[in-house]
Amino acid sequence: AAQTPEWNRIVEAAKAEGKVTLYSGHVGVPYHPEVAKMFEAKYGIHVEILDLRASDLAERIRTEQATKRIAADVILNGAGTLWLMKNQGVLAAYGDLPDLGRLRADVEKDDARLPIYIQGYGIAVNTRLVKDGERPRSWKDILDPKWKGKILADDVRSLGGGSTMFATTYANFGREFHEKLATQDPQFSRTVRENARRVARGEFAIYIPFSLPDLLLNKNLPIAGITPVEGDVYAQFDLSAVKDAPHPNAARLLMNFFLSEEAQLVYVRSARVPTIKGLESKIPADVKDIVTAKLLGTSDPARIDADLKLANEIYK
Amino acid sequence: MPSVQLQNVGRRFGGVNAVGDVTAVVPNGAFVTLLGPSGCGKTTTLRMIAGLESNTSGVISIGDRIVSDPSRSLFLPPEKRNAGMVFQSYAIWPHMTVFDNVAYPLRLRRLTREDVRAKVMRALDLVQMTAYAERPAPLLSGGQQQRVAIARAVAFEPSVLLLDEPLSNLDAKLRDEMRIELRALQQRLAITTIFVTHDQEEAMALSDRIIVMRSGSILQDDTPEGIYFRPSTLKVAEFCTTSTIIPATVVASRPGTRSRVLEVRGDDWSGMVQSATDVVEGAGVSVIVRAESIRADADPASVSGDQDIRWRGRVEKNVFRGFRRTLVVRVGEIAFTVDAAPENDIRVDQEVTLSVSLKDTWSIPAAAAAASATETPL
Amino acid sequence: MPSVQLQNVGRRFGGVNAVGDVTAVVPNGAFVTLLGPSGCGKTTTLRMIAGLESNTSGVISIGDRIVSDPSRSLFLPPEKRNAGMVFQSYAIWPHMTVFDNVAYPLRLRRLTREDVRAKVMRALDLVQMTAYAERPAPLLSGGQQQRVAIARAVAFEPSVLLLDEPLSNLDAKLRDEMRIELRALQQRLAITTIFVTHDQEEAMALSDRIIVMRSGSILQDDTPEGIYFRPSTLKVAEFCTTSTIIPATVVASRPGTRSRVLEVRGDDWSGMVQSATDVVEGAGVSVIVRAESIRADADPASVSGDQDIRWRGRVEKNVFRGFRRTLVVRVGEIAFTVDAAPENDIRVDQEVTLSVSLKDTWSIPAAAAAASATETPL
Amino acid sequence: MLAALTLYPIGTLLYGSLSSAPPGQAGTLDFSGYGALFNAHTLSILAVTIGMSLLKTVLSLIPATILAWLISRTDVPARATLELLIGLPFFIPPILTAMGWAMLGNPTAGSINQVWQALTGATTPIVNVYSYGGVIWHLMQFTVPFAFILLVEAFRSMDPSLEESSRTSGASVFTTFRKITLALMLPALSSIAILSVIGGIEAFESPLFFGSPAGIHVVTTEIYDSINNRATPNYPYATALSFAVIALMALLVAWQWRALRGRSFQTISGKAFAPRPIELQSLRWLAFSFCVLNVLIFTVLPVLQLVVSSFSQYYGFYGWDMLTTSHYHDVLHSDLFWRSTINTATLGVVGATLTMILGSIVAYIVVRTTLPFRHVIDLIAWLPWMMPGMVLGLGFLWGFAVLPHAIGIYGSLWALLLAYLSLGTPLSVRTMSTAFSQLSHDLEESSRVHGASWALTFRKIVVALTMPSFSVGWILTFFMVFRELSASVLLYSVGNEVLPVTVLRLWEEGKAEDVSAVAVLMLAIVVVFRGFHLIMVKRWIASRT
Ligand SMILES: Nc1ncnc2c1ncn2[C@@H]1O[C@H](COP(=O)(O)OP(=O)(O)OP(=O)(O)O)[C@@H](O)[C@H]1O
Ligand SMILES: Nc1ncnc2c1ncn2[C@@H]1O[C@H](COP(=O)(O)OP(=O)(O)OP(=O)(O)O)[C@@H](O)[C@H]1O
Ligand SMILES: [Mg+2]
Ligand SMILES: [Mg+2]
């Protein structure tokens, strides 16, 4: 990293602040504390992490801003949610960071949102119920009538993997794809965390969209993850600095640290796609397929309400 | 020890006038009994004195202090009145032992451990319950619970003692003993005591004064002898004594030794009776003769000469009651109740001569009797 | 109507032997009273008959049917025994009106609306509570609640009626009336009735037989007169009568009219007394004289000649009790209790002659008396 | 105090429901949230929710009442153990029992259906938990023990002679139960029924787990959608919906007042009584079987599953090779677990104690005094329970954040404590008012006369006499703190982590097995607590037997 004098001043100021608070809206990821430890070890600045569900996080930030009782310095959340928050005016620009240059060119970013990792969603199948040769290879394979009644899906009418998949596939394959999918009688479930297990237990043959990093959590179970030929649907997670944060310098320092190789590798090991260049050779073999899979696309935050409305129309 | 004064005290429950308009004074250190039929307002009166019920009208004072006066919104809470009370329902605390129940008021007064122990044991001794000190209260029989309630009320030597039928579940033997103990204690400590009972004999035996109530108001407030021998109304006579009431007409009136003497005439009989007041000739009176003062003789000749009035009638009933035998003797319209000795050999259907002497009679002008008869029943 | 039989019935509560070993028969249609001091097991016995408590030993039968026999694990539940019961705690249901309380057993028996109404009103009438039919039960005075409990127990004309101190909260007047009503009802319907009371006079007046209990066992099971005039033990005499007990030594023994007659000698006195059995010369006896059978005369000369024993003593107390006056007269070691007429003019500290006639005496061999004295208190 | 705890957060919500912008931001008065209520969709959701809640209440109260009565008033064998076991499922996190039942009763691979199909050769499943019935069944899983625990205490403090006099009047055990016992238990039953109905309306996990897949939508899922499934959360609609629920529930409470008015239910009289169990005779073992059956279905099944899962590598996949203690190892070696457990326990002890004290005082005022505003107070005490948790959580967040900066409640443990106090009060008020309405007045009066002030009497007589109920209320509120998520997640801060949030984290990380391990540890605490508690109650009663 470039050690400009200006940045050194920020490092010093950050150390003087002594602490930084991160609100994380991606509760299912246990890796932020690991990164925080590395950061603490390096700079001696204490990181406090508060895990909150995305909607709770948004509400807390909004309330803190409205009442000027600001506790959060940095937010980690889905890119779409942060986009909305940015529009509410509660985020601050992170300015120039020494390691910005490392970012891959193909990730979406703006002056307030710093991409950290990408999570890919594919298709999960029960390996006992679905023979090797019968596995769907494309998103469109699940429209085959033989899967009728055997598909478990995250509810596409509710925010999260389900709506992201809906928006992306709708944008890429058109309305027809979903009208057909609707006739397959997919069982919608909102208890996302249970779904992979339900497929593993044989309640259903197929589960979409399957968060591929979850394969690591289900190692010995009869479940396989498939990246469709069109590519994975994905969700991108970003960092943002909070407006009027109590520790603005530490916030920027922390954000920059997330772009470091050591931090990024933490997420790579959990089968998430890094947002910086030059890690290709360092991807462990067991997650290589997932991390390097082709990506189909993600949802457009500006269209959230419109997409939900469409989903509700198609899936009564 | 303070006196207790009630001035025009009343208590309404919605539409029900449980206590009407009671004015009475219980002097310092006196033992006064409230006597009256079930539902006449005895418990309510006691509760108002204790501060458990607020009187809706009138003034209650204990000693020099007004404790309740609704017209001035004055009300002293019960715990400030230093009264001991035995509830009609005992109100024994089921989560405590006998000892703890009795110790409760003492501990509230921050007595030392030893003092508490000593006083509790003394009180339990009084009610013959020392052997049960450690027994949980719910495992006692009814009478035992009642005795614990008495011990609790007296253990802390309150300045006013309020007792609501405290002996109703005890047998005669124990009741007699407890009466004596209670009276002795009351006199030793000079506690102003208000006692509610439904037992006339008990009221007579214990009290300095008796207040006879009915339908929420006072009929007579007098010494036991006054109530018994010289009832002011027929109701009092009926309630406090076992008497026969005979209508008669006054023939003449003259002063007697303790009261006036009337010469009266009834159906088939005539004689002299006592009366509180002069009654004009020709007016009606109700003659009252108490069961125990009537003699019943099978042989008219054996009636002694000092008996002033005589009737002849037929025995209708003969009930053995232990120390006495109650005869019902019919004389014309009237059924006389007569107490006889237990071994009496008078049989049902026998003809007997009833007689009574002047000093055992009493009479009340019929006007007063009629007035109290028209009183609406509660 | 069935009889009720108890054979060696007992009930233990943990370590406490509430009822020891009771054997008794209450004949078909009879009115039998359980009498005894507080805590002697009366309520427990009644509850066992009702089926609310299971006896730990012995056999209970109602009519020809054994209703409880723990040795054969036989137990008929209370609702099958068709017994009406008045509880010592009333057990009035607080969430119902007076009417509904009384109607409850009738409705269970599926009577028509009109029948229910008629029977409830008749029962309420019996206890003089018709005016309160629609009142919620908790708003009644203690005595009123007790009357509702009685109405409820009799309204459905049970074949066995179990009454646990049903009149304890009523005044003498009402109690007298209720007694008469209860007895009349019992005789009209010939309901086998077991009555618990602590009031000896009430027991005597109502009962066909009286069972005197103490510490969980039966002391005497006899007619009222038998209990009263010929108690089998000192305990019975002490409990059921107001008596003075005087130790004496037998000088001679001879048969009398109704019982044996003993010639006895005490401190400074001698005379004839009745006895159930022959007692050997020189043996000790306890002589029992009842308070109401002793005469007290200030003037020894006025004592009539048919009085068999005389004592001279000093009046210690004189308590007015309405229809009688209780004197305590000290003769040497012994304090005599004497009932006198209410207007008696004997004063405290006066010397009086006490006298009693042979027919009013009773005696119990000292051995038996000693035996019952060593009995451990409960 | 009460008003501050409940009216304040709810007031901010009311403001939120009427404002076009959320609190803290300038907005204009706006009735659109309420306007949106009046359409067929919302009304049908309200109808479905209430219908479901009523049904599960009725279905739960029947077994709960019978069980409570058997355990507290009869001589059923092994009562003490049964009492402990029947109450246990109340303390299992609903999400875990949901997983359990999903495995047992799903239409394709559920064990029940597989056994059924193997036995009969049928091809159609007999049960499907992803249905209306499934939601109700899962709700019952929680309601039966809840109602049971509260009812046992109510039954216990009843003068047996009230039942006995019915028996001698000719009523059988069961007629007596119906006509006297139940009638006398009306305050308790109706209070518990209302708690249960409201609880059902607020339930989130069951409809989410079993209802959503079947297309069943209820108020909570609707609120969840309106907050979470929009680009901008629609708070006016969410809060307006909550207030509609409150209005309906207030009708229910008013109905209870009417139904109970002017009657007395005092079953502990001044004439002390010994608690005598009813001898069931020949029915004893039948009753016992009934209890055991309940224990098997509602307790053994889920608890066993939980225990096995906590030792399995994967929840629901059993096999000897899958056994592991690593979940316990993980959990017990996590600083966060210990920190949040200690925080939660502290909050639980302090919160439950304060809640019960506050609740007792409120209950006393409502039941025992004739103060003019007591019904208003009663209703206020109900409010926090009537408000769906996720909305009320917002109320607290807004409420605490809007306070002047000098009052530093926001972000401190105090915020959580106050929220728990408010959330626990309805339960404590219900528990205690039921208990108080059973006490006859003379027991207090006799204490007052003998020199104890009102406060002393309250402590030494009223509370002491209702100690079993008080302690049950304490335990229920204590463990409520262990599972309250909606407010916790909005109010906790770093260092103030509480167990529900930690559990949420584990859950979101896909560690259902660790959650099971935590739940088993929690159940162990429950068993110790309840065991100790029951022994205390027994001793308290033994002091009367
Ligand atoms: N809370 C109440 N509401 C309405 N009426 C009541 C209430 N309490 C008592 N009463 C009525 O007031 C009257 C007087 O009751 P109180 O309890 O004082 O009678 P009591 O003289 O003690 O009778 P008892 O000898 O039967 O105990 C009764 O008729 C009773 O029914
Ligand atoms: N459940 C119980 N456990 C232990 N002892 C008991 C129990 N019930 C009653 N007792 C004891 O058994 C004895 C008999 O009680 P019971 O109630 O039968 O007396 P009782 O003759 O009715 O007395 P009372 O006239 O005072 O009502 C008493 O000493 C009582 O303390
Ligand atoms: Mg009374
Ligand atoms: Mg008794």
TrEMBL record, chains B, C:
Domain of life: Bacteria
InterPro entries found in the cross-reference section: AAA+_ATPase (IPR003593), ABC_SmlMolc_Importer (IPR050093), ABC_transporter-like_ATP-bd (IPR003439), ABC_transporter-like_CS (IPR017871), Mo/tungstate-bd_C_term_dom (IPR008995), P-loop_NTPase (IPR027417)
Domain (ABC transporter) ranges: 4-240
Keywords: ATP-binding, Nucleotide-binding, Transport
Gene3D superfamilies: P-loop containing nucleotide triphosphate hydrolases (3.40.50.300)
Recorded family membership: Belongs to the ABC transporter superfamily.
PANTHER family cross-referenced by the UniProt entry: SPERMIDINE/PUTRESCINE IMPORT ATP-BINDING PROTEIN POTA (PTHR42781), SPERMIDINE_PUTRESCINE IMPORT ATP-BINDING PROTEIN POTA (PTHR42781:SF4)
Protein name: ABC transporter ATP-binding protein
Automatic annotation (TrEMBL), chain D:
Main location: membrane
Domain of life of the organism encoding this protein: Bacteria
UniProt keyword Transport present: yes
Record key words, sorted: Cell inner membrane, Cell membrane, Membrane, Transmembrane, Transmembrane helix, Transport
Membrane topology (UniProt): Multi-pass membrane protein
Record's subcellular location: Cell inner membrane; Cell membrane
ABC transmembrane type-1 domain: residues covered: 46-254, 341-533
Transmembrane regions: 42-70, 82-104, 135-155, 176-201, 235-255, 285-308, 345-367, 379-401, 407-429, 461-482, 515-537
Sections of the chain in a coiled coil: none
Keyword Cell inner membrane: yes
Pfam families on file: BPD_transp_1
PANTHER family with a match to the protein in the record: INNER MEMBRANE ABC TRANSPORTER PERMEASE PROTEIN YDCV (PTHR43357:SF4)
Membership in a protein family: Belongs to the binding-protein-dependent transport system permease family.
Annotated protein name in UniProt: Iron ABC transporter permease
The organism of origin for this protein: Bradyrhizobium symbiodeficiens
